[in-house]
Amino acid sequence: MNECLFCRIAAGSIPADIIHEDDEFLAFRDINPQAPTHFLVIPRSHIAALSDLSAEHADTMGRLAVTASRVARDEGLDQRGYRWVVNCGEDGCQTVPHLHLHVLGGRPLGWPPG
Ligand code: 5GP
Ligand code: ZN
Questions:
Q1: pLDDT of residue 1
Q2: Ligand 1 and 28: CB distance under 6 A
Q3: pTM over 0.90, yes/no
């Protein structure tokens, strides 16, 4: 059995509040939201972290960006704006080792991040 939490969500063996899914990507609400709207966009294929990317991932990452933009629009975030975050590794505060893009919006967000 795949031990990766987000692979298991993608496979449907762990429930999640899914707001978009297609052949390649899944978007679902974060279980511990940090903003009124906070969802994660993941590739179904397992990529552990940003630091593992290579040229073969370029098209996937491009389509992931387009998908996240479309879902943000569907969630009504495009008028006021929103933020994307991808945490990587220990210093980046990554806790789930399956690449995921956070989309946060629905309130003014502080800058710089802590
Ligand atoms: P990271 O810290 O790796 O950038 O983000 C992991 C995110 O996944 C966190 O914001 C955390 O709240 C979320 N998360 C962890 N476990 C689950 C889960 O089982 N379901 C959902 N929907 N989100 C989760
Ligand atoms: Zn995975």
A1: 55
A2: yes
A3: yes
